[in-house]
Amino acid sequence: MYWRKAVIALAFFLCGCGVGQPHFSTIYDVEDNSDLEIINAYLMVEDGEVAKASDLFYQLYQKSQNEVFLKESAKLALSAKSNSLYKLMDELKGDDAQTLRLKIGYALSIYELKEAKQLAKKLIKKDKSSQNYILLANIYAFEDDKKRAMELYNRAYEIDKSEDNMIRIVSIFNDFLGDNVGATKIANEWINQNGCGQRTCYVLLDLYSNLADFDNMVKIYEKLYLENEASQYLVNALEILLYKEDFKEAKRVLKKYEFNDDLLSQIYAQLGEYKEAYALAEQLYELTDNKDYKAKMAIYKYEFSKTKNIEQIIKLFEESVYELDNSVYYNYYGYILIDHDINIYKGLELVLKAYELNPKSPYIIDSIAWGYYKLKKCDMAIDWIEKIGAEYLKQDEFKSHYNKITKCIKGKK
């Protein structure tokens, strides 16, 4: 376990110090006629030949005795885990910040966390940067001294509250220390002070997602929408709310942002607010002349008035269902005609049309069975309703019809 922690520590060190990345400005400050060799070395790095690049920089050091080349060679050797690393580190003298970072990296690479920690403390005395505090905190974390590690991470964040550093600290708290609450707190504080930038809010969304904290995910999507005015964020929020079946909150979002009246009309219906659903569907029909809204108007009017306005309901269906050729609307209209004994034959014809379009729907099959029952054709009714299956027949909606049909069959015997 100890050696694994040391490997992770080295990985953090390499990322934090940019090991393996070209630093052209530093190298080209050297007054030397080695430009082509320097370029060649960095081309090797780009091609993945990091160890060869390290060797080339060491050759440049031997020619010039300039430690800039030696440090670059050591840095690349550390990244490549080159066999020449021990020799290079032995030649590195001095205790400037860059040299100390290289020595820390080397100590981590040979699993000497105690030595790495002493060097990191020495480095902080010279350079109290956020990056250096993070480096020392990482070492404490790998030693399982989380209390001290957190103190140092917080210190690093106090020094540099940039978005990049905040995201780095949040990642460490969440992924490394397992402190999701602390990570969430830091991200939220940053957002409250600086706004919901996409990068930060996406980080926070990931944290909330891992916690299955859907309510806060919705809040973040709303903040992102307000910051960016991209409708996709509202879509994301609504997807979560519909997944949760939190229709009241979905209604709030839709009304607040005046977004997607079609969906709002359906949400009203889901909440049993059929008058509101009807009024909105009517507005949408007037705006679009889309017959789908007319069929919905018929359904909503029936739900809040039942047969009080049956003539209007029939008129709305007649003006929409045939053009739409939709199984749901055929079935709904047909069932009303059957159940209220308005026109059982026509109702049965409609639900059979629905069946042609969707033969697997238990609701449509039930409507057909109910139509035959109403026509006193109980043998046909029982054949149809038994197609639904035992699981559905346990549900109250189907059970009532099934019991009446079976009673009819027994009465004929």
UniProtKB/TrEMBL annotation:
Q: Which UniProt keywords apply?
A: Lipoprotein
| Coiled-coil positions | none
PROSITE patterns on file: PROKAR_LIPOPROTEIN, TPR
Keyword Oxidoreductase assigned: no
Pfam families linked to this entry = TPR_8
Tell me what this protein is called.
Tetratricopeptide repeat lipoprotein
* Source organism per UniProt: Campylobacter devanensis
